[in-house]
Structures are given as C-alpha cells and as structure tokens.
Amino acid sequence: MRILVTIVRFRLDTILLELAQDHWVRWFLLSWYLPKPKRSSALRLREAIEHLGPVFIKFGQILSTRRDLFPTDYVNELAKLQDQVPPFPTPVAIERIEKSLTQRIDALFKNFNFEPIASASLAQVHGATLHDGSEVVVKVIRPDVADRIKRDLALIFQVARFLQAISQDAKRLHLIDVVNDYETTIFNELDLTKEAHNTSRLRYNFAESELLYAPRVYSDFTTNDVLVLERIHGVPISATTELAEHGTDMKKLAVRGVETFFTQVFDHNFFHADMHPGNIFINVDDPTNPSYIAVDCAIMGQLTIEDQTYLARNILAFFNQDFKEIAQLHAESGWIGADADPQAFEEVIRELCEPLFLQPLSQISFGHFLLNLFVTARQFNMEVQPQLVLLQKTLLNIEGLGRELDPDLDLWSTAKPFMERWMKQRFGVEATLKAFSENAPKLLGELPRLPHLLLTANDRLETAERQLRMQARHIEMLQVNAQPPTRTKWCKTVVSLCVIGGALLLSAGWFDWLPPIRMDAYVIAGIASWIVGWLLWHRR
Asked: Which of 85, 89, 133, 92 is nearest to 110 (CA)?
C-alpha cells in the first residue's frame, strides 16, 4: 500500500506506462485517464524516493552510479539525492556505545561531544577525546536500522519483480541483480569492523607515500556497531576558494589525484570506491605539496589480474587508436557474447572512439570513455562486472574533481606512462624471468615425477578413448532401435487392430441384427483389407 500511495502521489504511473507499452497492465494506469504531469519523470522519481525514506535514498544513490544501465536524465537527477536524516537522540547513541564496548562513556573517553558531527541513514558521528588526549570521531550504527532495511528491501524487491514482469526493458536492466548488489553493499556497511579493516588496509598501503592519508583505527574501541577513528583536519576538496586562499598548488593536486587513483587500482589493487566530495579532504600544511585525506572506507573495490590487464590494454589500445585490439580484448575475455560478430563490434567501437580524437586529448573524459565502452559492449550481450562499475564510477568522481581543481588537467598524459610501466612490470622480460626463477624450484622438484605423470596421462587418455567408442556404439544402437516403424508394419498393425476390434464387437452381439456370415468370409475380408491398406500406403 505504501508503494501504491507513493506511485499515485508522484504520478509514477507515467514511468510505468513507458515500461509497460506491450503489457495489458498499461490499461489500468492513470496515465490513460489523467493529463500528463508538467514536471519530468526523473524529477518526480527523485522526489518519490526522498519521500520513501533513507533506505530508498541510498538505493537511489546506487542507481545514480549505474550510468551503464539507466538514461542520463534519470541518473543526473538521482545523483542529487542526499543521505541526510535527523540525528537520533544522543542518550540512545551513548547507550549503544556503552553496551557495545561494555564500559561507561566516561571510562572510554575524556570528553564526548553530545552534538553529532554528521548524521546519515545508517549511522551518526560524534566527536570525542581519548584519555591520552587523542582527538577521535565515534561512529555508531542507528538502533533497529537492520530491521527497517529488511522491510524496505522486501518492498524494493517486490517493485523490481513487478517491473521485470511487465517490461522487457526492465529485464534487460537486470533490476533484481541490481537490488541484490545493493543488499550486499548496505549490509556490509552495517558491520563497522569491515570499514575498520578497509581503513587500516588503505592506511597501510599509503604508509610510505605522500599521496594519500587514511586515519588511524582504534581497534580496542571498535565493534560491529561502533567505530573509533583518528579525527582528521583538512579542507574539503569541494572548497576550492578556501584551497586557493591557502595558496594550494591546484595543478599538482589535480595530477596527484589521478596518480592516487591509478596507484590504488594497479599497484595496490584496493581502491576507495566512494570518493565523492564529502569523503575527500586536503592536507594544506604545505600548500606547495598538498596531499589527500580519505575517510569513509565502507565501500572498496578490487579487480582480478584479468580485469587489470583488460583495463590497461584497453587504455593503451585507445591511445594508439587500435580499435581491432579493443574488439579482440573483449572477445578473448568472454565479455561479449559468443555469437557476437567481432568485426561488427570493431566497427561500433571505431564509430564510438574516432570522433573523440577530433578534440584535444586533454578534453577527452576518461570515465565517459569507459562508460560508453560498457554501454556499447552491452549491445553485444556483455555482462558488466560489478567491480568494473565501481571502478568507472570512482574514475568519473576523480576526473570530475580533478578538472574542478585544474580545468586543463590532461588525465591521459598522466595515465599512459603509468599504464606502460605497469604492463612492463607485470609482463615484461624482467617480470617473466622473475616469475620463472620463483617457480623454478617447484618445477625442478616435479621433474623426477615427469615420466610417471606422462604415463598416467597417456593411460587416462586411452581409457577415455575406449569409453567414448563404447558410448558411440551404444548411441548407434539406440538410434537404430528408435527408428520409426516401416510402412508395412504400420499397415499390418492398423489392419490387425481393425480385425481384432471387429471380432470383439461381433462376440459382444453388436451386429446380431445383420444376417449370419460364414467364417471364410471373415478370413477373405481380413486378407482383402490388408491388401487394400498396403496398396494405399505404397501409392503415397
């Protein structure tokens, strides 16, 4: 009922009408009887999601990252959703902290700020000071939020199933899969030990680097429901005026953002996948050598070595305008359907990429190139991997922020040497020799067993060959036995059934009203019927 009321209130029936053009349900929609709303469908959808509450808002935010699936106007509107809700009472927060950490609040902290720093749908954050004087932030999960998430997810699943039932477009978008991904993401965010682990790992990865800083995790004060982190002080990356007032080197900061991204993706294979402006700050202690500070590590991404290689080779092929290589990469990785035409895919890629090179390379959007590549490949039944969607979303964020800092940022010139270096380190001569030397002891250890392994393999091949021959003969016998009956057998069967049926009817007295007939007449009639049936059959 809650969903139906929202649909009527915000006239979402117009969206359903667009989706259900070929379904009987369209005749029951208000769109057939009421005037068309003046505001856009995308705007009304955003307002409806805001009305439904925090869990739906976070789901809308997830949808806003799927530019590979949804129309641009909807994605842009959903990106405006803000995960901001009124804070829950501080005494409740303190009670949850004390229960989770099994100590009183004054035993845990020297000072505890009763006024929350931030409040979102899943948790809220308070400032505090430890007894050793360290400034920290305390993140605490909202009470009963898990139950509400389960209820709202059940509604979201119902909506997704309904849309997939009435619309082929909804099926193509794999809405159920999107909701499943969201369910996994949001329940991971409810476990603050996972965020603690992610933050510690990111901090470790950049411990010797001046590119990025992650806050310290206080593990003794961290549970599933409570997370205590070092309090950082920096300038929000979106505060460009304040950064300029500090004399920050914007060009260097923009380039470092790109370097930070590629370092996470390729060197560490562990990247922050929620790098929107609210989660990134700048350390301006040395304005000529600024560095990044990352917070909120709830959502992180990783790639397989195959995905890393795919991405790096695609980027280098794009640089070299080798569209055939891009098409072959997709085919080799199995990312396009087995029935897809590689030449047709290459032509589509060429049509997509060639116009981009008519403009300066510095003006080409790296993130939009990947997005268009995914969208194009989906036309050839490509299944976009969730980790690559996270990567593409993060890249769009980084690229957008970088160009706000420096409109002339040439992301490609920064990326190309990085890609070439990574490919050389991974697949160059030195890397090959290193891999061989690392595996040499194991290979040498297996050498004495090599003759035995070869003989065993040969025996298994011979056994498999014999089994295949036996199966082939068995299949041939089944095929022979399964052949349809010959025409003669068919005729004999039909005539015999007629004769037997007639005899049964006679014995039952069905034809007693007819004059008596001699037995030899029955025999003659049966033979005649068989001959007639045979002749009729062979004339065909």
From this structure: 133
Contact yes or no for 230/253 (Cβ under 8 A): no
CATH of the domain at 124: 1.10.510.10
Is there a catalytic annotation at residue 339? Answer: no
User: In this structure, is residue 260 part of a structural domain?
Assistant: yes
Highest mean pLDDT: which of 287-291, 313-317, 508-512? 287-291
- Cβ proximity of 142 and 122 under 8 Å: yes
127: CB partners within 8 A, 6+ apart: 113, 117, 135, 136, 137, 138, 231
Verify that 168 and 46 share a domain, yes or no: yes
Per annotation, catalytic residue among 274, 406, 410, 520: 274
The amino acid present at 356, given as its one-letter code, is L
Q: What was the pLDDT predicted at 407?
A: 85
Cα–chain-centroid distance for residue 288?
A: 40
Residue 287: partners with Cβ closer than 8 Å, 6 or more residues away:
246, 247, 248, 249
b/e sequence 346-355, b meaning 16+ C-beta within 10 Å: bebbeebbee
69 lies in the same domain as 168: yes
Residue 23 backbone phi and psi in degrees, to 5: -130, 145
How far apart CA 380 and CA 329 sit, in angstroms, is 14
Separation CA 502–CA 529 (nearest Å): 12
Asked if residue 309 and residue 283 are part of one domain, the reply reads no
Q: Which residues contact 406 (CB under 8 A, 6 or more apart)?
A: 250, 251, 253, 254, 255
The residue type at 238: S
Q: Which of 259, 283, 300 is the last residue of a domain?
A: 300
The one-letter code for the residue type at 497 is L
- Check if the beta carbon of residue 361 is closer than 8 Å to that of residue 413: yes
Q: Say which residue, 491 or 186, is predicted with more confidence.
A: 186
Question: How many other β-carbons are positioned within 10 Å of the β-carbon of residue 372?
Answer: 17
Token code pair at residue 343:
């030449």
DSSP state of 263: I
- What is the token pair recorded at 158? 């119902």
Residue ranges making up the domain that contains 510: 494-539
HEC string of 27-40 equals HHCHHHCCCCCCCC
Residues 6+ apart with CB under 8 A from 261: 271, 394, 395, 398
User: Whose CA is closest to 312, among 433, 430, 432, 424?
Assistant: 424
pLDDT tens-digit series, residues 210-225: 999 999 999 999 999 9
Q: What is the domain count for the chain?
A: 5
